[in-house]
Design a protein that fits this description.
The chain has two domains: about 15-230, PmbA/TldD superfamily (PmbA/TldD fold), CATH 3.30.2290.10; about 235-450, no CATH class. The strands form three sheets. The chain has a six-stranded antiparallel sheet with strand order 3-2-1-4-5-6. The two termini are about 50 Å apart. The protein has nine helices and 17 strands. The chain is globular and about 70 Å long. The chain is an alpha+beta fold and about 450 residues long. It has helices at about 15-30, 85-100, 135-150, 220-230, 250-265, 265-270, 330-335, 360-370, 415-420, and strands spanning about 35-50, 55-70, 75-80, 155-175, 180-195, 200-210, 240-250, 290-295, 315-320, 325, 350-355, 370-380, 390-400, 400-415, 425, 435, 440-450. Strand 2 (about 55-70) and strand 3 (about 75-80) form a beta hairpin. Helix 1 (about 15-30) packs across helix 2 (about 85-100) and helix 3 packs parallel to helix 4.
Length: about 450
């Protein structure tokens, strides 16, 4: 398979991108904008995929863009371009200014307050480039898949292994005099394999992702884990419809906390489209439960020194002893609610759920006693307005703290607000691979729909 040559376009430096932003802001001022903000990004990457020892995909990525937003009083206009030439930048600013003259006034629009800008952003060690050739990436992916296929003769097919590396450089500036940016990297190795035959064909996966490629899990270990997980699912049974305790493994629990985070975003609050509407100050979780935002964890996937508006990010306690202390706000959503931005334009940065139980997975299974261990969820059956929750699921039936057999073709249902209040324990088997850090989560009781 032919490998595409490297893109001949020069990779721009942080200083280059800052100069583009300064030029755009100067043009906006010259055209009479009362305020303006601009963001420039440059991204590059390599991803490869192999299946049954053959290369299926090989992609080199290189993207760049500039976006400019101008304000004429409370009128707003935005435009973007992938052309960084002075002429294109001027034309893009002119287009944004033209758009602004036709938009309706919105008293909540505008930049975040100048005193909130991140004047001395910390270095969070988010940049660890991997000088990875396509040939070496293919070797790693092949070794990962081979380890999975060689783990056990029952592993008889593969959906493939993949290796991806990504570099990004993002700079933001505004007419408050703020301009800042930082490089980031992310790297991933993953594998998906199958076992069984006919109607009893089962699949599962495993992956490792990190800012620092040297901290990735060994590729062959990833392949073996994907095989082990797949074999554990062979021969699933169905369950009769019942009410039972449910234990989410960490990678599934992350989604549950994600539903909570979505409900307390400012946009959900001011649009009145949240099952936790006006819930600040209320007991949302059980006593003893806490969630903190920690945006400055070094090398973490969700870390950022400032948000998408240049606002300095800070540690905060989002849930204390089960009580919701506030919302996730940008400057716009904060103004809509009569509040102050929390430095969350673009979302939350590293939500950390404090464990309430020690001993890892085995201890959480013992706490579950008899019930369902959920290892996979399917579908998007969550209503953000009402909190109604109904999703296809697979996992294992547990009795007396021990896994008895795999289960499939079931649905678990409840209401997210009730589910959050019914959390019995959070394990210390924390998954750190994303922007939400949480261990296994045990819920007292849910409806399991089966036969």
């Amino acid at each position: 398979m032919a490998i595409a040559p490297a893109d001949p376009v020069r990779r721009l430096t942080l200083g280059d991108l800052e100069s583009i932003i300064e030029r755009a802001l100067e043009e906006a001022r010259a055209r009479g904008a009362s305020q303006a903000e601009a963001a420039v990004s440059q991204d590059s990457g390599l991803s490869v995929g192999v299946r049954l020892g053959e290369v299926e995909t090989l992609e080199h990525q290189r993207d760049r863009s500039m976006g400019i937003t101008v304000y004429f009083g409370h009128r707003k206009g935005s435009a973007s371009t992938a052309d960084f030439s002075p002429e294109a930048v001027r034309a893009t600013v002119a287009k944004a200014c033209s758009i602004a003259r036709f938009t309706a006034e919105d008293t909540c629009s505008g930049l975040a307050q100048p005193e909130l800008m991140a004047r001395s952003p910390p270095d969070l060690e988010l940049n660890h480039p991997w000088n990875l050739s396509a040939e070496r990436a293919i070797e790693i992916a092949k070794s990962c898949e081979a380890a999975a296929l060689g783990f056990d003769s029952r592993i008889n097919n593969s959906e493939g292994a993949s290796v991806a590396t990504h570099r990004g450089l993002h700079v933001y500036g505004n007419t408050h005099g703020f301009i800042g940016g930082y490089p980031t990297t992310s790297h991933t190795v993953s594998c998906v394999v199958l076992a069984g035959t006919g109607d009893d064909m089962q699949r599962d996966y495993w992956y490792s992702t990190s800012r620092d490629w040297e901290e990735l899990e060994d590729a062959e270990a990833i392949g073996r884990e994907s095989a082990r997980r797949t074999l554990a699912r062979v021969g699933p049974r169905k369950l009769s419809t019942r009410r039972a305790a449910v234990l989410y493994v960490p990678e599934m629990a992350r989604g549950l906390i994600g539903h909570f985070a979505g409900a307390i975003r400012g946009s959900s609050q001011y649009r009145q489209s949240s099952f936790l509407l006006n819930a600040a100050g209320e007991q949302v979780f059980p006593a003893g439960f806490s969630i903190a935002e920690r945006p400055h964890i070094h090398k973490a996937m969700g870390s950022a020194p400032f948000d998408e508006e240049g606002v300095e990010t800070r540690d905060r306690e989002l849930v204390t002893d089960g009580v919701l202390t506030g919302y996730i706000l940008s400057s716009y959503s904060a103004r809509k609610l009569g509040l102050t931005t929390t430095g969350n334009a673009g979302g939350a940065h590293n939500l950390v759920v404090a464990p309430t139980a020690s001993g890892g997975r085995e201890a959480m299974l013992a706490r579950l006693g008899t019930g369902l261990l959920v290892t996979e969820l399917m579908g998007q059956g969550v209503n953000g307005v009402t909190g109604d929750y109904s999703r296809g699921a697979a996992g294992f039936w547990v009795e007396n703290g021990a896994i008895q057999y795999p289960v499939a073709e079931i649905t678990i249902a409840g209401n997210v607000r009730d589910m959050l209040k019914d959390i019995v324990a959070v394990g210390d088997d924390v998954d750190t691979r994303g922007g939400i850090r949480v261990g296994s989560v045990l819920i007292r009781e849910m409806t399991i729909a089966g036969e």
